[in-house]
UniProtKB/TrEMBL annotation:
It comes from Actinomadura sediminis. Keywords: Signal. Belongs to the leucine-binding protein family. This is ABC transporter substrate-binding protein. SUPFAM superfamilies: Periplasmic binding protein-like I (SSF53822). InterPro entries: Leu-bd (IPR028081), Peripla_BP_I (IPR028082). Residues 65-417 form the Leucine-binding protein domain. The keyword Secreted does not apply. Residues 1-11 have a biased composition (Basic and acidic residues). Residues 1-20 are annotated as: Disordered. The keyword Signal applies.
Length: 436
């Protein structure tokens, strides 16, 4: 795995690249044209009524502004994710104040709380679309919650862009769901990365798995199982938990009894902290602890104690704001400076803020790439990325999409926690090489 080279699209055969571009444009045009509304939305920019843009939806966008709506669990068991929109808002405030927005359009970002409850997610999506009249839903967070919203968004033909979840479904059926697209690497891809890592470094490992009992947990688990199939790596124990469970202590006791060499921890932040603490307390069990990217932030690790999480392994696609190697990095310096200016008091080392910043940067790129300032134009843009960079992505990581690729980012790099920070090792791996 470590000997593989990061995919460099710039060296592709030109004929293949041109064919992809033509296919992308044609496919997206057909999908969106088939689902487009017959009339225009509320008045938009003048170009929306001219040429190929005529008849497309302009609700929520004018020549001076664009309105976006985000849905997050600001309350409830996964409320740690409620910090992400603060980083997004800081980026948009910086963009609006210092750059005049995107193409002269200032971004209004409206955030709603769903408490990580799917029925509430749909309720808030309806509120954003039908009352607030947003141009697009941006960064709906969570797999079960965003799945519920996906049905509504595609029925209403409203873009659901850069879903904050790595579930495989966001890119699985663009014909049925042309208005939804993911952003971060898929959970299945992350699972395959861990499986390949063990095959290379621990070829006879016995593995115990803890996973959240929903699409999120199952996707990563299945990716891992697919990667180790036919190898000497074996799963000897598995336990699942519900997001509403108060504790995972019983599951951790059962997994420890297996005596496995490796513990694959597929959790969200609250349960990630619990799993790390339980592992550290059980001195009789000392497995290699692999924790998924979702639960690898400093806000998860620090309460447990850095001395108790040494040597754990995870994966990353973003620069870690707590890592001193990025101290002089221009993107990181800009992030730290503007976060302090537009969101004073926030800790810039909190990875949830940098994640929000990076996703907002991606949205700026998408809005800037629209040929038509319409909902259809936005979806065409996000399905035709080629080596597009968003702020704070790791070196070698770019955004790439296509007619059947609903994940702009699919490159990951392994990291190990040492001292008081994550340290990258190996090389950035484009998981597309492993196929879907």
């Amino acid at each position: 795995m470590r000997d593989k080279k990061t995919c460099d699209k710039k060296t592709r055969d030109k004929k293949t690249r041109d064919k992809k571009t033509r296919l992308t444009a044609a496919t997206v045009a057909v999908l969106l044209a088939a689902s487009a509304c017959g009339g225009r939305g509320e008045a938009g920019g003048s170009t929306a009524a001219q040429g190929e843009c005529k008849g497309q939806q302009t609700t929520g966008i004018t020549g001076e502004s664009v309105k976006l709506g985000g849905i997050y669990p600001l309350s409830g068991p996964t409320s740690a994710y409620g910090e992400i929109p603060k980083g997004i808002k800081a980026y948009f405030d910086h963009l609006n104040t210092e750059k005049g927005g995107v193409g002269g359009r200032k971004i209004e970002f409206i955030v709603r709380d769903d408490g990580y409850q799917p029925p509430k997610s749909v309720e808030e999506a309806r509120r954003l679309v039908e009352q607030d009249r947003v141009f697009a839903l941006f960064q709906t967070l969570g797999t079960p919650t965003s799945s519920a919203v996906m049905e509504y968004a595609n029925q209403r033909k409203v873009p659901q862009v850069f879903v904050s979840s790595g579930a495989s479904k966001w890119g699985a059926d663009p014909v049925k769901y042309p208005w939804t697209i993911g952003w971060q690497p898929s959970y299945a891809s992350e699972g395959r990365l861990y499986g390949q890592y063990l095959k290379d470094d621990e070829p006879d490992a016995e593995v115990a798995i803890l996973y959240q009992n929903d699409d999120y947990g199952k996707d990563l688990r299945e990716g891992f199982l697919t990667a180790i199939e036919g190898s000497g790596v074996k799963v000897v124990a598995e336990q699942s938990y519900e997001v509403t469970d108060p504790s995972i202590d019983p599951q951790m006791r059962n997994l420890a009894e297996s005596g496995a060499d490796v513990f694959l921890d597929i959790t969200t932040p609250k349960f990630g902290s619990q799993a790390l603490a339980a592992d550290a307390q059980n001195t009789a069990w000392n497995p290699l602890h692999i924790i998924n990217n979702v639960a690898s932030s400093m806000t998860v690790l620090e309460p447990v104690g850095f001395d108790r999480v040494q040597g754990i392994v995870s994966a990353a696609f973003l620069k870690d704001p707590s890592d001193p190697q990025w101290a002089d990095d221009p993107e990181m310096k800009l992030y730290e400076e503007k976060l302090a200016k537009y969101a004073p008091g926030l800790d810039p080392t909190n990875a949830f803020y940098s994640l929000g910043w990076a996703s907002a940067s991606a949205m700026e790129k998408a809005l800037g790439a629209m040929k038509c300032p319409t909902r259809e134009g936005l979806m065409e843009a996000v399905r035709d990325f080629e080596d597009v960079r968003s702020d704070l992505l790791l070196p070698g990581v770019t955004m790439n999409t296509g007619p059947r690729d609903g994940y702009p980012i699919e490159t990951l790099q392994l990291q190990r926690f040492e001292g008081e920070r994550w340290n990258l090792f190996g090389e950035a791996i484009d998981t597309r090489k492993a196929g879907r």
